[in-house]
Amino acid sequence: MARVHIIGAGLAGLSAAVELAGAHEVSLYEAAPQAGGRCRSYFDASLDMTIDNGNHLLLSGNHAALAYARKIGGDGRLAGPDEAAFDFCDLERRQRWTLRPNAGKFPWWILAPDRRVPNTAGLDYLALVKLLFARRDQTLRPFLGSGEIARNLWNPLFVSALNTDPGEASAALAGAVVRETFAQGGDACRPLVAVDGLSAAFVDPALDFLRGKGAEIRFGAKLRSIEFQGDRAAALDFAEQKIELAQDDKVILAVTAPVSADLLPGLSAPNEFRAIVNAHFAFPAPKNLPLLTGVIGGATEWLFGFHDRLSVTISAAERFLATPREELAEKIWAEVQAAAGFSAPLPAWQIIKEKRATFAATPAQDALRPGAETRWRNLFLAGDWTQTGLPATIEGAVRSGVRAAGLCAGDL
């Protein structure tokens, strides 16, 4: 039986391995001592609790990611409201509202004032329709305008989805998000959060699944180079071992764009990246706080209310990379108190700055993203930075793994 060698145990590599395990011999290699990549949990000694290295959100329309979670048995660790509902808090104007798209594809919710953003009209939401027809060379800002709805909905929505400022972000990638969520109705827009941690939902069950299927998993295995012979990858050179590939063996390279570009001569890949800042506070969420709150008028963008902690995500966060961690923690904690409606001293905290969290979702960078196939017949690519048609998301990462697995198995 042919063996598939998968390099990288982030969600792209894990999803590819899950697709192939059992029907094929699978070897999964990861340079780090743990799986998950940017989507994992770890024990933080300063907080004395397990937290996620970054907050991630799924929507009920993310079919590939949810199918992956169901297959490995992690879907029970995802929680969210029974209907599409997004709570918002405006710190500057001291307003609160809930965005509630209706179930079904006909968007009658935009005609109901109690379901849409305050001080907006139904026609303001036509930007979503226009985005569906955006060209790949167009940027996002002209589609969004600069009025109330841009400030209170479009900016937080698309900055978080693309991790790129709307002034330079790709309108086509934003349109892809709309096409698979709002354009499908509220049934595709329910927010889902891994309440017990990302690893419990997406990583640990996958490793158990793979071990149960007889897959080989190696941690601390850093690939130094790939040797090629003609149109095929012939050997994998790890620091401690060189693996000669049989004629029918295949390779899925599911590592970051910079690492892939170092390993593959002439590879076109994104080379600009954007930052994300996450803040975690060892303070249980108040009982009346929603699981997810969008925050307007502050540095905080999304507030997650977990049973043991409060967590904040700030996307396109280059402006905060130079801010001292203590200063940033105090600033965010003040906003968390205002958004959650309580007052308390700064608890134990952790700030995580991911300087290269995702590729910059600009038209130019999107054009550099390669497909899953390469010029070597037995080597395929996976990763949210490859050409998935989506921004760098969990859904995109899983889709890329499934795509690469399908090419390996000859299913596509």
Query: What overall geometry do the principal axes of the alpha carbons give?
Result: globular
* Broad CATH class of one domain: Alpha Beta
Strand content: 15-25%
CATH topology annotation of one domain: FAD/NAD(P)-binding domain
For the secondary structure, the number of strands is 20
Calculate the terminal CA-CA distance, rounded to whole Å.
19 Å
Query: If helices are DSSP runs of H or I spanning 4 or more residues, what is the number of helices?
Result: 11
**Strand order, largest beta sheet:** 8-7-16-17-18-15-19
What are the segments in which pLDDT stays under 50 over at least 5 consecutive residues? none
The percent of residues in helical segments reads: 25-40%
* Helix/strand/pairing category: alpha/beta
CATH superfamily of one domain: FAD/NAD(P)-binding domain
Query: If you compute it from the alpha carbons, what radius of gyration comes out, rounded to the nearest whole angstrom?
Result: 22 Å
User: What number is the mean pLDDT?
Assistant: 96
CATH architecture of one domain: 3-Layer(bba) Sandwich
**Major sheet description:** 7 strands, mixed
